[in-house]
Amino acid sequence: MSKKVFRDVKSFKIVRKNWLRGSGDNSALFRAEDEKMCCLGFYAKACGIAQKHIINMPTPEDVTSNLKDIDGRWDTCLLDLFWNTKLTNELMSINDNKKLSDQKREEKITAKFAKAGIKVKFANK
Questions:
Q1: What is the pLDDT of residues 62-120, one digit of tens each?
Q2: Cα separation of 18 and 21, whole Å?
Q3: Whole-angstrom Cα distance, residue 72 to residue 7?
Q4: What would the pLDDT profile of 31-61 be if each residue is shown by its tens digit?
Q5: Sign of the dihedral through C-alpha 38, 44, 47, 49
Q6: 76 burial class (0-12, 13-18, 19+ CB within 10 angstroms)?
Q7: Cα(45)–Cα(109) distance, integer angstroms
Q8: How far is CA 15 from CA 3, 37, 41, in A?
Q9: Are 3 and 73 within 8 A, CB to CB?
Q10: Total of domains in the chain
């Protein structure tokens, strides 16, 4: 059986009503208690990773152990082998910052993903 590889996508969408942001340390790629996702959760799903593999996972590096169950790996700019990259840490900091306005947060997240060649669209639906 060949290994399932999840790769970066060129663009993805963040739906504001389901976006988990400004939550400080209470963030996750997909937070089960309210079914909201941080920006990296939306990105993981856009890359094809099933929701069950990102539930209550605090960071992308935590997802890698879940993917072993399906003999999978996430080949992404967010990970350096199995560890979060500088980009990932910056995105988490921006997403979870309690002091940023949503407008500033969206601008900063868009700019960070753009540096990796990834386009982000924020939408109300």
A1: 998 888 878 888 999 999 988 999 999 999 999 999 999 999 999 999 999 999 999 99
A2: 9
A3: 11
A4: 999 999 999 999 999 999 999 999 999 999 9
A5: negative
A6: buried
A7: 17
A8: 31, 9, 11
A9: yes
A10: 1
Confidence (pLDDT) at 24: 85
Helical segments of the chain, H only: 39-46, 60-67, 86-96, 102-115
DSSP state of 70: G
Tokens 């504001």 locate to: 16
Q: Are 39 and 26 in contact (CB under 8 A)?
A: no
Distances (CA, A) of 36 to 22, 42, 107: 12, 9, 20
Residue 55 belongs to domain spanning: 4-123
The C-alpha R_g of the chain, in whole angstroms, comes to 14
